[in-house]
Amino acid sequence: MTYVANSLIERAAHVAAVAARHADSVDREGRFPHEARRALADARLFGAMIPKEHGGEGAALSDIAEICCQLAQACASTGMIYAMHQIKASSLIEHGAGAPWHEDFMRRVATEQLLLGSATTEGGIGGDLRNSICAVVTEGERFTLEKNATVISYGADADAILVTARRALEAASSDQVMVVLRKQDYTLEKTSGWDTLGMRGTCSDGYLLKSAGATAQVLPQPFAEIAAQSMLAMAHLLWSSLWFGIASSAFGKAQAFVRAEARRAPGKTPPGALRLAEAGEKLQVMRSTILDGLRRYEEAKAGGDDLGSMSFVLAMNNVKTAASQTMIEVVNLCLMICGIAGYKNDTPFSLGRELRDALSAPIMINNDRILSNSATLLLAHRVEQRLAV
């Protein structure tokens, strides 16, 4: 069944209900959430952000962030897969406009509800996505590309993968491009598995990727511009939105636990009530930080050059590092509130999945790397120290 008449958020709620039913088995078995993926396609949500002129719905970033939040409350792996897809879609939308091949591919994403994967990490460079060893080898209007990708987001289940590489064999490691590869353009040879603590359903195995295609599949702008103008900000904001969803899920269980305690002992304040208030405070701060980040992004996008400013980069970096740390604090508080009922895996208050999924956040684009970048920027940038706008 396809749900196109209802609003994006209503359709997302239906998908979240599907994801929730299968979240435990996805986590336990470390399998891809096929049921949620089919529900997302049926709800026409993969093409939500694609512009209307290219067959999508032209959804605002705030709507996509809310969908990520809803999905993550049900199944963090599903939320992460959707966030990663939309981060890749944003590169197409912002940097493929005016390029016939990419505009046609956007229509395919919206019409066929294609799932976009990501291959930005590589053996030999670790998590430094702004450098590549592999290169695009061009001959006439065709190219070949081989990448030892230590991680490809849900690579086996993606319909297309956006890959970073050096612009040419003679190019510097930082002179990168992004290439859109359709499933028929590449082969994957698995080199490592994805037996992880959390986010197990993302199934981001490592692969040796071998591909060939038309040079038109290379996005026109350098990857440095793609990363600065859309990808990193989108990643920080959408990841933070799904982390808020994880924290909200944990808080909901802790609140239900405290309410149950209050009903058992009327007139007495439950032991966990004060920690619940503390967790609620942190959750509110987290929400405000993300909402401010979304507002800053929309303002910067409207202003054009602001996307590359030091103040904007610092603001987006701060959203990511603050949200990733605060989420863990909230989940830990909720675990203390629920006690053994939260520690066990077979109770309505179980928080094992939320805690394990939450621990992935500081190492997704490692917080130390981001803070190091921010520290360098702060040597030349004055931080605003007034509340007046």
The count of DSSP E runs of length 2 or more, i.e. the number of strands, is: 7
Task: Determine the N-to-C terminus distance.
Answer: 48 Å
| Percent in strands | 5-15%
What's the pLDDT, averaged over the residues?
95
The CATH first-level class of the largest domain comes to Mainly Alpha
Q: Sketch the major β-sheet.
A: 4 strands, antiparallel
Q: Which spans of ≥5 residues are poorly predicted at pLDDT below 50?
A: none
Please compute the radius of gyration using only Cα atoms: 21 Å
**Oligomeric status:** single chain
In the CATH scheme, what's the topology name of the largest domain? Butyryl-CoA Dehydrogenase, subunit A, domain 3
The DSSP helix count reads 11
Number of domains: 3
**Structural class of the helices, strands and pairings?**
alpha+beta
Please supply descriptive tags for the structure shown above.
single chain, alpha+beta, Butyryl-Coa Dehydrogenase, subunit A, domain 1, Butyryl-CoA Dehydrogenase, subunit A, domain 3, four-stranded antiparallel sheet, three-stranded mixed sheet, 11 helices
Would you give an account of this structure?
The protein has 389 residues and is an alpha+beta fold. It has three domains: 8-115, Butyryl-Coa Dehydrogenase, subunit A, domain 1; 118-217, Butyryl-CoA Dehydrogenase, subunit A, domain 2 (Beta Barrel), CATH 2.40.110; 223-378, Butyryl-CoA Dehydrogenase, subunit A, domain 3. Helices cover 52% and strands 12% of the residues. The protein contains eleven helices and seven strands. The chain has helices at 8-29, 34-42, 61-74, 76-95, 100-112, 223-264, 273-303, 310-338, 340-343, 352-358, 367-378; strands at 116-119, 137-139, 142-149, 160-166, 176-182, 186-192, 206-214. The chain has a four-stranded antiparallel beta sheet, with no helix packed on it. Strands 1-4-5 form a three-stranded mixed beta sheet, covered by helices on one side. Helix 1 (8-29) packs antiparallel against helix 2, helix 4 (76-95) runs antiparallel to helix 6 (223-264) and helix 8 packs antiparallel against helix 11 (367-378). It is globular and about 80 Å long.
